[in-house]
Design a protein that fits this description.
Number of helices: 9
Order of helices and strands: HHHHHHHHH
Low-confidence stretches: none
Shape: globular
Strand content: under 5%
Helix content: over 70%
Radius of gyration: 16 Å
Distance between the termini: 47 Å
Mean pLDDT: 92
Number of domains: 1
Length: 190
């Protein structure tokens, strides 16, 4: 039963679902985000493209036979592609600054996570990054009640530890990445 609950938590809190939650919260909570075009584009780039990695992994020959590692590798590719296209669209369509901050924070976090995982022995958790990022972003952009979402971080840590997917060090390092990514994106944009 414990493993089943951990798996459900893990599925509900994958990065693209958390991004969808963040974007929807912002769309309905802040006048700065009441543009349907930018909202739909953000969902496309931060949610749909990254999720496509999972069905595509099953059909693309170079990822199909690699199992979980192939899935992770393709997910990172789709993430960087989506985040890059998001930044480009934000510039071209003159999106509100907040959207540009979100895209850049996601991009910096995705690239940083990929580099950490390629260049170090630590397999920083993309799951922890994908949960902590939207929480940090919602606190930065909305403040107030959004601090409550921090409760999700220990729940996700428990889930990933229970499933044996990560160590506490990998989870903490993954959760720290979007804090730095958000800070840098705010510094760059403002």
């Amino acid at each position: 039963m414990k493993n089943k609950v951990a798996k459900i938590i893990s599925l509900i809190t994958v990065a693209p679902v958390m991004a969808l939650g963040l974007l929807t919260l912002l769309y309905f909570s802040s006048n700065s985000f009441h543009n349907l075009t930018h909202y739909i584009l953000a969902i496309t780039f931060l949610t749909v493209l990254p999720i496509l990695a999972y069905p595509l992994q099953k059909v693309l020959p170079s990822f199909k036979d690699k199992g979980r590692e192939g899935q992770r590798e393709l997910a990172f590719i789709m993430v960087v592609l989506g985040y890059t296209l998001g930044i480009i669209s934000a510039f071209i369509l003159k999106a509100p600054t907040q959207y540009l901050i979100i895209y850049l924070a996601y991009f910096l976090s995705g690239v940083s996570l990929a580099l950490i995982n390629k260049l170090s022995k630590v397999k920083a958790s993309g799951h922890a990054c994908g949960v902590a990022g939207p929480i940090v972003m919602s606190i930065y952009l909305l403040g107030g009640y959004t601090w409550f979402f921090i409760i999700l971080i220990p729940i996700v840590f428990w889930s990933r530890l229970t499933m044996g997917r990560h160590t506490i060090k990998e989870l903490i390092s993954g959760a720290l990445v979007p804090i730095l990514g958000t800070f840098l994106s705010v510094m760059i944009i403002h």
